[in-house]
Amino acid sequence: MEITLGDGPIDVEVRDGVLRARGLPYGRAVRFEAGRPVDPWSAPRDATRPGPACPQRIGRLDFVTGPVLRDLRVDEDCLVLSVTAPQDADRLPVMVWFHGGAYVAGGGESAKYDPTRLAHDGRVVVVTVTYRLGIFGYLAPNEAEADDNIGLRDQLLALQWVQRNVRAFGGDPDDVTVFGQSAGGDSVLALMVCDGAEGLFHRAIAQSAPLGVGTGTAEVARGRADMAAAMQAAMSASLGGASPRDVGAGRLLEAEAAAVVAAQRFSTLGGMAFAPRMGRRPLPRADELAARFAEAAQRVELLIGYTRDDGAPFVALQPRVARLRSDFVRRQAIRVARRPVTARIFGRGAEAFAADWRANGGRVGTYRVDWAPGDTPLGACHCIELPHLFGTPQTWADAPMLGRARGPDEALGERMRSAWAAFAHGGVAALPAGELRFG
Which residues are listed as membrane-spanning (predicted)? Predict the structure, then answer.
Protein backbone atom coordinates (compact mmCIF):
# COMPACT_ATOMS: atom_id res chain seq x y z
CA MET A 1 0.00 0.00 0.00
CA GLU A 2 1.33 3.44 -0.91
CA ILE A 3 0.94 6.60 1.20
CA THR A 4 2.15 10.08 0.26
CA LEU A 5 3.87 12.17 2.94
CA GLY A 6 5.17 15.70 2.76
CA ASP A 7 8.66 14.42 1.90
CA GLY A 8 7.56 11.80 -0.64
CA PRO A 9 5.64 8.54 -1.17
CA ILE A 10 6.18 5.42 0.96
CA ASP A 11 5.25 1.75 0.67
CA VAL A 12 3.77 0.43 3.93
CA GLU A 13 2.71 -2.95 5.27
CA VAL A 14 -0.92 -3.77 6.06
CA ARG A 15 -1.69 -6.94 8.00
CA ASP A 16 -4.76 -8.05 9.94
CA GLY A 17 -6.32 -4.61 9.75
CA VAL A 18 -3.22 -2.76 11.01
CA LEU A 19 -0.99 -0.46 8.96
CA ARG A 20 2.70 -0.17 9.82
CA ALA A 21 5.21 2.25 8.33
CA ARG A 22 8.72 1.68 9.67
CA GLY A 23 12.05 3.46 9.61
CA LEU A 24 10.68 6.78 8.38
CA PRO A 25 13.25 9.59 8.51
CA TYR A 26 12.08 12.67 10.40
CA GLY A 27 15.45 14.43 10.18
CA ARG A 28 19.11 14.04 9.24
CA ALA A 29 21.68 13.61 11.99
CA VAL A 30 24.96 15.52 11.78
CA ARG A 31 27.31 14.82 14.69
CA PHE A 32 26.93 17.31 17.58
CA GLU A 33 24.40 19.39 15.66
CA ALA A 34 20.64 19.72 15.85
CA GLY A 35 18.77 17.55 13.35
CA ARG A 36 18.42 18.89 9.83
CA PRO A 37 15.49 18.61 7.41
CA VAL A 38 15.12 15.45 5.39
CA ASP A 39 15.89 15.59 1.67
CA PRO A 40 12.62 14.86 -0.17
CA TRP A 41 12.30 11.86 -2.48
CA SER A 42 10.10 11.06 -5.50
CA ALA A 43 10.14 7.27 -5.93
CA PRO A 44 8.20 5.24 -3.32
CA ARG A 45 10.39 4.55 -0.27
CA ASP A 46 10.31 1.12 1.37
CA ALA A 47 8.79 1.58 4.85
CA THR A 48 8.33 -2.09 5.70
CA ARG A 49 11.63 -2.63 7.54
CA PRO A 50 12.87 -1.15 10.81
CA GLY A 51 15.30 1.72 10.83
CA PRO A 52 18.52 1.91 12.85
CA ALA A 53 19.17 2.67 16.50
CA CYS A 54 21.75 5.15 17.74
CA PRO A 55 25.20 3.61 18.32
CA GLN A 56 25.43 2.52 21.96
CA ARG A 57 27.15 0.32 24.47
CA ILE A 58 25.46 -2.78 25.92
CA GLY A 59 22.42 -1.68 27.91
CA ARG A 60 22.91 -1.95 31.65
CA LEU A 61 19.36 -3.27 32.09
CA ASP A 62 19.66 -6.14 29.61
CA PHE A 63 19.63 -8.40 32.68
CA VAL A 64 16.09 -7.10 33.27
CA THR A 65 14.55 -6.75 29.80
CA GLY A 66 16.79 -8.96 27.70
CA PRO A 67 18.52 -7.41 24.65
CA VAL A 68 16.36 -4.59 23.30
CA LEU A 69 18.24 -4.12 20.02
CA ARG A 70 18.25 -7.72 18.84
CA ASP A 71 18.57 -7.76 15.02
CA LEU A 72 18.57 -3.95 14.79
CA ARG A 73 21.46 -2.22 13.05
CA VAL A 74 22.98 0.95 14.49
CA ASP A 75 23.88 4.14 12.66
CA GLU A 76 24.55 7.73 13.68
CA ASP A 77 21.96 8.83 11.12
CA CYS A 78 19.22 7.34 13.32
CA LEU A 79 16.48 10.00 13.28
CA VAL A 80 13.71 7.60 12.33
CA LEU A 81 10.24 6.76 13.57
CA SER A 82 7.55 4.18 12.92
CA VAL A 83 3.80 4.64 12.66
CA THR A 84 1.27 1.94 13.55
CA ALA A 85 -2.45 2.55 12.98
CA PRO A 86 -5.73 0.77 12.38
CA GLN A 87 -6.11 0.42 8.63
CA ASP A 88 -9.39 2.35 8.74
CA ALA A 89 -8.10 5.10 11.03
CA ASP A 90 -9.81 8.46 10.58
CA ARG A 91 -8.91 11.38 12.89
CA LEU A 92 -7.91 9.04 15.70
CA PRO A 93 -5.89 10.18 18.74
CA VAL A 94 -2.12 9.95 18.32
CA MET A 95 0.28 8.51 20.91
CA VAL A 96 4.00 9.29 20.51
CA TRP A 97 6.38 6.93 22.38
CA PHE A 98 9.85 7.85 23.68
CA HIS A 99 11.78 4.80 24.87
CA GLY A 100 13.87 4.60 28.03
CA GLY A 101 17.43 3.48 28.63
CA ALA A 102 19.06 6.18 30.81
CA TYR A 103 19.61 8.28 27.67
CA VAL A 104 22.35 5.84 26.61
CA ALA A 105 20.52 2.75 25.34
CA GLY A 106 17.47 1.56 23.45
CA GLY A 107 15.71 2.32 20.19
CA GLY A 108 12.15 3.00 19.11
CA GLU A 109 12.35 0.45 16.29
CA SER A 110 12.85 -2.48 18.69
CA ALA A 111 10.39 -5.36 18.30
CA LYS A 112 9.89 -5.11 22.06
CA TYR A 113 8.16 -1.77 21.46
CA ASP A 114 5.84 -3.10 18.75
CA PRO A 115 2.57 -1.21 19.46
CA THR A 116 0.31 -3.26 17.18
CA ARG A 117 -2.05 -4.43 19.92
CA LEU A 118 -2.23 -0.98 21.51
CA ALA A 119 -3.05 0.63 18.17
CA HIS A 120 -5.55 -2.02 17.08
CA ASP A 121 -7.44 -2.57 20.32
CA GLY A 122 -7.20 1.01 21.57
CA ARG A 123 -8.10 2.65 18.26
CA VAL A 124 -5.10 4.99 18.35
CA VAL A 125 -2.26 5.88 15.99
CA VAL A 126 1.06 5.09 17.69
CA VAL A 127 4.38 6.70 16.69
CA THR A 128 7.58 5.23 18.15
CA VAL A 129 10.62 7.51 18.01
CA THR A 130 14.36 6.84 17.87
CA TYR A 131 16.59 9.71 18.99
CA ARG A 132 20.29 10.28 19.64
CA LEU A 133 21.73 8.96 22.88
CA GLY A 134 24.71 9.28 25.17
CA ILE A 135 27.70 11.11 23.78
CA PHE A 136 25.89 11.61 20.45
CA GLY A 137 22.86 13.28 22.01
CA TYR A 138 23.68 14.67 25.45
CA LEU A 139 27.38 15.53 25.72
CA ALA A 140 28.44 17.99 23.06
CA PRO A 141 32.16 18.80 23.00
CA ASN A 142 33.17 22.08 24.60
CA GLU A 143 33.01 24.00 21.33
CA ALA A 144 31.14 27.20 20.53
CA GLU A 145 29.52 25.69 17.43
CA ALA A 146 28.27 22.53 19.17
CA ASP A 147 24.54 22.36 19.96
CA ASP A 148 23.09 21.47 23.37
CA ASN A 149 20.45 18.90 24.34
CA ILE A 150 20.59 17.35 20.89
CA GLY A 151 18.60 14.23 21.81
CA LEU A 152 15.79 16.36 23.24
CA ARG A 153 15.81 18.50 20.09
CA ASP A 154 15.47 15.29 18.09
CA GLN A 155 12.30 14.53 20.03
CA LEU A 156 10.94 17.99 19.25
CA LEU A 157 11.75 17.45 15.58
CA ALA A 158 9.82 14.16 15.65
CA LEU A 159 6.79 15.89 17.17
CA GLN A 160 6.93 18.51 14.43
CA TRP A 161 7.00 15.68 11.86
CA VAL A 162 3.87 14.25 13.48
CA GLN A 163 2.09 17.58 13.07
CA ARG A 164 2.88 17.65 9.36
CA ASN A 165 2.33 14.02 8.45
CA VAL A 166 0.12 12.06 10.85
CA ARG A 167 -3.08 12.89 8.97
CA ALA A 168 -1.83 10.63 6.17
CA PHE A 169 -2.18 7.70 8.61
CA GLY A 170 -5.59 8.69 9.94
CA GLY A 171 -4.25 10.46 13.01
CA ASP A 172 -5.40 13.78 14.46
CA PRO A 173 -2.50 16.24 14.94
CA ASP A 174 -4.70 18.23 17.33
CA ASP A 175 -5.07 15.24 19.67
CA VAL A 176 -1.55 14.05 20.53
CA THR A 177 -0.42 12.25 23.70
CA VAL A 178 3.30 11.84 24.41
CA PHE A 179 4.33 8.93 26.60
CA GLY A 180 7.59 7.44 27.72
CA GLN A 181 9.22 5.27 30.37
CA SER A 182 12.29 5.93 32.53
CA ALA A 183 14.48 8.32 30.50
CA GLY A 184 11.53 8.46 28.11
CA GLY A 185 9.30 9.55 31.00
CA ASP A 186 11.90 12.12 31.99
CA SER A 187 11.87 13.31 28.36
CA VAL A 188 8.10 13.72 28.50
CA LEU A 189 8.41 16.02 31.51
CA ALA A 190 11.22 17.99 29.85
CA LEU A 191 9.20 18.42 26.67
CA MET A 192 6.41 20.08 28.64
CA VAL A 193 8.69 23.04 29.41
CA CYS A 194 10.68 23.15 26.15
CA ASP A 195 10.71 26.26 24.02
CA GLY A 196 8.84 25.45 20.82
CA ALA A 197 6.88 22.48 22.23
CA GLU A 198 3.63 24.28 23.01
CA GLY A 199 0.80 22.94 20.85
CA LEU A 200 2.72 19.85 19.71
CA PHE A 201 0.93 17.61 22.23
CA HIS A 202 -2.02 17.85 24.58
CA ARG A 203 -1.69 14.94 27.02
CA ALA A 204 1.30 13.20 28.59
CA ILE A 205 2.05 9.90 30.34
CA ALA A 206 5.23 9.77 32.43
CA GLN A 207 6.14 6.20 33.37
CA SER A 208 8.79 5.67 36.06
CA ALA A 209 10.53 9.01 35.51
CA PRO A 210 13.56 9.08 37.86
CA LEU A 211 12.53 12.31 39.55
CA GLY A 212 14.61 11.48 42.61
CA VAL A 213 17.77 11.96 40.55
CA GLY A 214 16.80 15.62 40.30
CA THR A 215 16.82 18.11 37.44
CA GLY A 216 14.92 21.14 38.65
CA THR A 217 16.91 23.02 41.27
CA ALA A 218 19.72 25.51 40.95
CA GLU A 219 21.91 23.24 43.06
CA VAL A 220 21.28 20.29 40.75
CA ALA A 221 21.86 22.50 37.68
CA ARG A 222 25.25 23.52 39.08
CA GLY A 223 26.05 19.89 39.85
CA ARG A 224 25.15 18.84 36.31
CA ALA A 225 27.30 21.64 34.89
CA ASP A 226 30.27 20.50 36.98
CA MET A 227 29.63 16.89 36.01
CA ALA A 228 29.39 17.79 32.30
CA ALA A 229 32.75 19.57 32.53
CA ALA A 230 34.34 16.50 34.15
CA MET A 231 32.78 14.25 31.51
CA GLN A 232 33.99 16.48 28.67
CA ALA A 233 37.51 16.39 30.12
CA ALA A 234 37.35 12.59 30.35
CA MET A 235 36.09 12.41 26.77
CA SER A 236 38.98 14.56 25.54
CA ALA A 237 41.54 12.53 27.49
CA SER A 238 40.13 9.28 26.09
CA LEU A 239 40.40 10.61 22.54
CA GLY A 240 44.03 11.59 23.11
CA GLY A 241 43.81 14.89 21.28
CA ALA A 242 41.78 13.61 18.34
CA SER A 243 38.76 15.70 17.38
CA PRO A 244 35.48 14.13 18.54
CA ARG A 245 33.99 15.24 15.22
CA ASP A 246 36.44 13.16 13.22
CA VAL A 247 36.82 9.82 15.03
CA GLY A 248 34.66 6.78 14.34
CA ALA A 249 31.53 5.95 16.32
CA GLY A 250 33.30 3.09 18.12
CA ARG A 251 36.02 5.41 19.36
CA LEU A 252 33.37 7.84 20.59
CA LEU A 253 31.66 5.05 22.53
CA GLU A 254 34.98 4.34 24.26
CA ALA A 255 35.11 8.02 25.20
CA GLU A 256 31.52 7.77 26.44
CA ALA A 257 32.55 4.95 28.78
CA ALA A 258 35.35 7.14 30.15
CA ALA A 259 32.88 9.99 30.65
CA VAL A 260 30.53 7.72 32.60
CA VAL A 261 33.38 6.72 34.93
CA ALA A 262 34.15 10.41 35.51
CA ALA A 263 30.48 11.03 36.37
CA GLN A 264 30.39 8.48 39.18
CA ARG A 265 31.98 10.82 41.72
CA PHE A 266 28.88 13.03 41.43
CA SER A 267 26.83 10.56 43.47
CA THR A 268 23.16 10.26 42.46
CA LEU A 269 23.56 12.51 39.42
CA GLY A 270 26.10 10.07 38.02
CA GLY A 271 23.41 7.38 37.94
CA MET A 272 21.96 9.16 34.92
CA ALA A 273 25.07 10.88 33.63
CA PHE A 274 23.55 11.78 30.28
CA ALA A 275 20.35 13.83 30.46
CA PRO A 276 18.86 17.12 29.26
CA ARG A 277 20.46 20.13 30.95
CA MET A 278 18.42 23.02 32.29
CA GLY A 279 19.43 26.47 31.08
CA ARG A 280 20.63 25.08 27.77
CA ARG A 281 18.44 25.45 24.70
CA PRO A 282 15.59 24.60 24.43
CA LEU A 283 15.12 24.27 28.21
CA PRO A 284 14.57 27.07 30.73
CA ARG A 285 16.86 27.85 33.64
CA ALA A 286 16.30 25.86 36.82
CA ASP A 287 14.90 28.91 38.62
CA GLU A 288 12.26 29.27 35.88
CA LEU A 289 11.18 25.64 35.98
CA ALA A 290 8.40 25.82 38.59
CA ALA A 291 6.67 28.64 36.72
CA ARG A 292 7.00 26.81 33.40
CA PHE A 293 5.47 23.63 34.83
CA ALA A 294 2.63 25.71 36.32
CA GLU A 295 1.94 27.09 32.84
CA ALA A 296 2.10 23.61 31.29
CA ALA A 297 -0.46 22.34 33.81
CA GLN A 298 -3.03 24.66 32.23
CA ARG A 299 -2.73 23.04 28.81
CA VAL A 300 -1.49 19.44 29.26
CA GLU A 301 -3.34 16.61 31.02
CA LEU A 302 -1.01 14.23 32.83
CA LEU A 303 -0.95 10.58 33.85
CA ILE A 304 2.07 9.78 36.03
CA GLY A 305 3.14 6.70 37.97
CA TYR A 306 5.71 4.05 38.73
CA THR A 307 6.11 0.37 39.54
CA ARG A 308 6.11 -0.92 43.11
CA ASP A 309 9.72 -2.14 42.92
CA ASP A 310 11.13 0.26 40.31
CA GLY A 311 14.36 0.50 42.28
CA ALA A 312 15.17 -3.23 42.36
CA PRO A 313 17.45 -3.39 39.28
CA PHE A 314 19.45 -0.40 40.53
CA VAL A 315 19.99 -2.11 43.87
CA ALA A 316 21.22 -5.18 41.97
CA LEU A 317 23.67 -3.00 40.03
CA GLN A 318 25.29 -1.58 43.16
CA PRO A 319 28.88 -2.91 43.37
CA ARG A 320 28.46 -4.00 46.99
CA VAL A 321 25.43 -6.10 46.04
CA ALA A 322 26.87 -7.42 42.78
CA ARG A 323 30.01 -8.62 44.60
CA LEU A 324 28.10 -10.78 47.08
CA ARG A 325 29.12 -14.39 46.48
CA SER A 326 26.01 -16.00 47.87
CA ASP A 327 23.07 -15.89 45.47
CA PHE A 328 20.70 -16.22 48.44
CA VAL A 329 22.24 -13.23 50.26
CA ARG A 330 22.26 -11.17 47.06
CA ARG A 331 18.58 -11.89 46.40
CA GLN A 332 17.69 -11.02 49.98
CA ALA A 333 19.64 -7.76 49.77
CA ILE A 334 17.67 -6.77 46.69
CA ARG A 335 14.37 -7.62 48.36
CA VAL A 336 15.20 -5.59 51.46
CA ALA A 337 16.44 -2.47 49.66
CA ARG A 338 14.19 -2.32 46.60
CA ARG A 339 11.24 -0.49 48.23
CA PRO A 340 13.25 2.30 49.93
CA VAL A 341 15.20 2.91 46.71
CA THR A 342 11.95 2.93 44.72
CA ALA A 343 10.49 5.55 47.05
CA ARG A 344 13.58 7.74 46.88
CA ILE A 345 14.13 7.69 43.11
CA PHE A 346 10.65 7.15 41.68
CA GLY A 347 7.69 7.02 44.06
CA ARG A 348 7.92 10.16 46.18
CA GLY A 349 8.88 12.26 43.17
CA ALA A 350 5.90 11.05 41.11
CA GLU A 351 3.49 11.65 43.99
CA ALA A 352 4.85 15.14 44.65
CA PHE A 353 4.81 16.03 40.95
CA ALA A 354 1.15 14.93 40.69
CA ALA A 355 0.26 16.99 43.77
CA ASP A 356 1.98 20.09 42.33
CA TRP A 357 0.22 19.59 38.98
CA ARG A 358 -3.12 19.43 40.75
CA ALA A 359 -2.31 22.47 42.91
CA ASN A 360 -1.53 24.44 39.75
CA GLY A 361 -4.98 23.66 38.38
CA GLY A 362 -3.92 20.83 36.10
CA ARG A 363 -5.79 17.58 35.48
CA VAL A 364 -3.74 14.58 36.60
CA GLY A 365 -4.18 10.86 37.12
CA THR A 366 -1.83 8.50 38.95
CA TYR A 367 -1.08 4.80 38.74
CA ARG A 368 1.13 2.10 40.23
CA VAL A 369 2.05 -1.30 38.80
CA ASP A 370 2.20 -4.03 41.46
CA TRP A 371 2.26 -7.12 39.22
CA ALA A 372 5.30 -9.37 39.67
CA PRO A 373 6.05 -12.87 38.40
CA GLY A 374 6.72 -14.11 41.93
CA ASP A 375 9.96 -16.01 41.40
CA THR A 376 12.56 -13.23 41.03
CA PRO A 377 13.97 -10.82 43.62
CA LEU A 378 13.28 -7.97 41.19
CA GLY A 379 9.55 -8.05 41.93
CA ALA A 380 7.40 -5.44 40.18
CA CYS A 381 10.57 -3.87 38.85
CA HIS A 382 11.57 -1.06 36.52
CA CYS A 383 10.29 -1.91 33.00
CA ILE A 384 7.79 -4.55 34.20
CA GLU A 385 4.91 -2.68 32.54
CA LEU A 386 6.54 -2.67 29.11
CA PRO A 387 5.65 -6.27 28.09
CA HIS A 388 2.07 -5.45 29.04
CA LEU A 389 1.91 -2.43 26.74
CA PHE A 390 4.07 -3.49 23.79
CA GLY A 391 5.29 -6.47 21.82
CA THR A 392 4.14 -10.05 22.19
CA PRO A 393 4.92 -12.86 24.63
CA GLN A 394 7.44 -14.07 22.04
CA THR A 395 9.36 -10.80 21.79
CA TRP A 396 9.64 -10.67 25.59
CA ALA A 397 10.44 -14.36 26.08
CA ASP A 398 14.10 -13.58 26.86
CA ALA A 399 13.33 -10.99 29.58
CA PRO A 400 14.77 -12.22 32.92
CA MET A 401 12.45 -9.90 34.87
CA LEU A 402 9.52 -12.12 33.88
CA GLY A 403 11.04 -15.08 35.72
CA ARG A 404 10.04 -18.61 34.88
CA ALA A 405 6.68 -17.35 33.63
CA ARG A 406 8.54 -15.96 30.58
CA GLY A 407 5.57 -13.93 29.57
CA PRO A 408 3.36 -11.05 30.67
CA ASP A 409 -0.06 -11.43 32.27
CA GLU A 410 -2.37 -11.12 29.28
CA ALA A 411 -5.40 -9.92 31.24
CA LEU A 412 -3.30 -7.25 32.94
CA GLY A 413 -1.89 -6.21 29.58
CA GLU A 414 -5.40 -5.71 28.22
CA ARG A 415 -6.25 -3.53 31.24
CA MET A 416 -3.14 -1.40 30.86
CA ARG A 417 -3.47 -0.91 27.13
CA SER A 418 -7.14 -0.05 27.59
CA ALA A 419 -6.30 2.56 30.26
CA TRP A 420 -3.50 4.15 28.22
CA ALA A 421 -5.75 4.33 25.14
CA ALA A 422 -8.67 5.68 27.18
CA PHE A 423 -6.44 8.49 28.45
CA ALA A 424 -5.37 9.27 24.87
CA HIS A 425 -9.03 9.43 23.84
CA GLY A 426 -10.52 11.30 26.77
CA GLY A 427 -7.85 12.36 29.25
CA VAL A 428 -8.22 12.05 33.02
CA ALA A 429 -12.02 12.09 32.77
CA ALA A 430 -11.88 8.77 30.89
CA LEU A 431 -10.02 7.03 33.76
CA PRO A 432 -11.55 5.50 36.89
CA ALA A 433 -11.48 7.77 39.94
CA GLY A 434 -8.50 7.40 42.29
CA GLU A 435 -5.07 5.89 41.73
CA LEU A 436 -4.98 3.12 39.13
CA ARG A 437 -3.49 -0.13 40.41
CA PHE A 438 -2.30 -2.87 38.07
CA GLY A 439 -1.67 -6.24 39.68
Answer: none
